[in-house]
Design a protein that fits this description.
The chain is of the alpha/beta class and 277 residues long. It contains nine helices and twelve strands. The strands form three sheets. Strands 5-6-2-7-1-8-9-12 form an eight-stranded mixed beta sheet, with helices on both faces. Strands 3-4 form a two-stranded antiparallel ribbon. A hairpin with a 6-residue loop joins strand 10 and strand 11. The relative contact order is 0.19.
């Protein structure tokens, strides 16, 4: 996957969408969708107009984590996204609900990704967050070929196994000439609720060291918190508790760092952040 071919169709910006941010990882199981969902809602609570595209068509978890099973309304030309928690949503999980697996090949995947990007009525958005599937498969390549990305966030746990694949994700974005907004360390540590001692279940600090090694920003650490897991399973993400909640603090710090990095990449000043309670 190299630079855009001279014969390839030009990348088309999404009308009304200011910043398109991909959230990816080199492997599954690192909490990428949890990070994407909480990032989208945190940005909305910080006064931004936000959309969230669940591009993981084989394992679409956004409907469950956002607590909605509505069916989008549309016609042959356009699809109206679902709105929940101040965020506009689109996911294959809305169109293919339940446990029935999706068995599609590359061309069909490219078609649905293009439709989700260009035929959904996203309206005016400051940020469209795209939750990518893990790895470097057809969906990821289709995204790179279809629209110009503002930048990408790479999610990893601090374990060496996760970081091995996280480094591949960094190189994937670089090969596609996508600016890397930074790395975020998920499941960084666990705080015992009884003795309040920090336990580094998956090690700690490996993502920050990797960010330094590759010369990319470190966007923060998100703890391994049962409340974050419960929020996703119940359809009530942790950031809904607000920035003052100890369970959501690190997620809001991460969101603010993403805002700052997008402004840096785009060469603009970070505007005043308006928090919505």
């Amino acid at each position: 996957m190299g630079p855009q071919s001279p014969n390839a169709p030009p990348k088309m910006p999404i009308p009304g969408v200011q910043h398109l941010v991909a959230v990816g990882s080199g492997k599954g199981g690192v909490g990428k969708t949890t990070v994407s969902v909480n990032l989208a809602i945190a940005l909305a609570k910080l006064g931004r107009r936000v959309g969230l595209l669940d591009a993981d068509v084989y394992g679409p978890n956004v409907p469950l984590m956002m607590g909605t099973r509505e069916t989008p309304v549309g016609n042959a030309e356009n699809i109206r996204p679902i709105e929940k928690q101040g965020v506009k949503l689109m996911s294959m999980g809305f169109l293919n609900p339940g446990d029935k697996p999706l068995v599609w090949r590359g061309p069909m995947l490219h078609s649905i990704v293009r439709q989700f990007l260009q035929q959904v009525e996203w309206g005016e958005l400051d940020y469209l967050i795209v939750d990518l599937p893990p790895g470097t498969g057809d969906v990821v390549i289709s995204l790179f070929q279809t629209v110009p990305l503002t930048g990408a966030v790479v999610v990893s746990t601090p374990s060496d196994v996760s970081l091995q694949d996280g480094r591949k994700a960094i190189e994937m974005f670089r090969t596609a000439r996508v600016d890397i907004l930074g790395l975020v360390e998920n499941m960084s540590h666990f705080v015992c609720p009884h003795c309040h001692h920090e336990i580094d279940i998956f090690s700690k600090g490996g993502v920050a060291r990797t960010a330094e090694q590759f010369g990319v920003p470190f966007l923060g650490s998100i703890e391994l918190d049962p409340d974050i897991r419960k929020g996703g399973d119940s359809g009530k993400p942790t950031v809904l508790e607000g920035e003052k909640s100890p369970h959501a603090k690190s997620l809001f710090e991460f969101a603010r760092n993403v805002i700052a990095r997008v402004a840096e990449v785009k060469g603009t000043q970070t505007d005043n952040v308006i928090q919505i309670q």
